[in-house]
Write a structure and sequence with these properties.
mainly alpha
Length: 56
């Protein structure tokens, strides 16, 4: 649930930053990066834990 809220907040921040820069493509691009970044961070943590447990 926290990941969903974090994704929405960072997506909103990305949309605002992209809107300030100008151009619709930047707005969508920064919004997409904002929505996906928390999920990618969690996936990277899971990958590190799995890799660490396989090495020992």
């Amino acid at each position: 649930m926290i990941l969903i809220i974090a994704s929405l907040i960072t997506g909103y921040i990305g949309l605002n930053i992209g809107g300030m820069i100008g151009g619709e493509i930047f707005m969508y691009l920064f919004g997409l990066v904002g929505v996906l970044s928390p999920a990618l961070f969690v996936l990277e943590d899971i990958y590190r834990e799995v890799r660490k447990s396989n090495n020992t």
